[in-house]
């Protein structure tokens, strides 16, 4: 009787386990079918959808919930299965702009998946929303073997990027999302390598160009007269005056731009008289700015220095007020060396608008040469908008000559401190227990070293140590407003 009872118990456990497995499979199949019905995942293979479903969590949000903002982008791919959300961002003039409203079948998080953290938008729910949330790390792992998923999400990213770029241009930000959508359909994507001439002085203009990512310099007869970046536009002067371009436009970094053909611009201005007035006002302001720079030798020198030293490659730079700093003081440099093993900050006397500029990493937002040169992809962005060097660094040194600002160097890797007793214990263990000697894992003796705004700490060592407040982190707009 006891044996029969035990056999019955085992059978019940097996049956219960089988039922649980069956329920799990049915649930996973239902989740996969739900994902297959979403527009953003059309054409994605069923096995890929199943892998996404295995990493997914269903979340509910009340109306008015802020899911993400421009400063803190999403760490998830979020698929809308019910409800609607609004996307807003701020244009270059600081005005809040509605980019669009997304509903069932669309997704969020592609900007962080394929782009950088400077293209985020604020996402706010308009209704009760149900979203499927998948960590971006899991999505990236799946993309490597799912080209159809990458194509689908990258198409959404490209469309969203164009919409966001138009929204950031004050000239177009006052238009409705529908009006910007019609403009977007006429835009031609363009790409330029570092140093390429985008527009040539003397050529006849054929389009209005909008910078989607990257940075360009406007040069007249070899002299820099303006600097433009993401959200800026150029080429309008030739179109409005019907005269050849009066300056070169050269790419300082790899540049992605959007070209609006002259005929489409003419049609747009004909239907938007206020837009035509705004554009002509921009032309007059730029003419005045060019004349001011050309007649001001100091301003010309400052602009040249800014470009030469890459002071607008990032968003912030370290500066110090010499009136508050004692001659020969190196407290900030010593504090940096004390925290990181060797100093990452130096001063060479570069002055700009009354402030001395520190020789440190510029934290280049686009086209960072060190990132391009690294064969191990060991230089990545952190949450503080700084480029940090990870443990993937092998100390190869490729990034050192790649940096045009001499901001990266190699530093020895400090050996872990161990007591003599520990070493004695390890030797006794090796004698006591025979082992098979395998090839030792290579440990780099040196690794790349650069400023990363003290990643992992709550403060900047150099700024905190300054006894007079002479050293601080300033925005590039404050140091050199354009």
List the defining traits of the structure above:
single chain, 482 residues, alpha+beta, 4-stranded antiparallel beta sheet, 17 helices, 38% helix, flat
Number of helices: 17
Number of strands: 24
Query: What is the 3D shape?
Result: flat
Query: Helicity, in percent?
Result: 25-40%
The biggest beta sheet reads: 4 strands, antiparallel
Distance between the termini: 91 Å
Please compute the radius of gyration using only Cα atoms. Answer: 28 Å
Strands of the widest sheet, in order across it, are 1-8-3-6
- Structural class based on helices, strands and sheet pairing: alpha+beta
Note poorly predicted spans: none
Strand content: 15-25%
Provide mean pLDDT, rounded.
87
Describe this entry's structure for a reader.
The protein is of the alpha+beta class. The chain is built from 17 helices and 24 strands. The strands form 7 sheets. A 4-stranded antiparallel sheet has the order 1-8-3-6. A 4-stranded antiparallel sheet has the order 2-7-4-5, with helices on one face. A hairpin with a 5-residue loop joins β20 and β21. α1 crosses α2, α5 packs across α7 and α9 crosses α10. The longest helix has 35 residues. The model has no long low-confidence stretch (mean pLDDT 87).
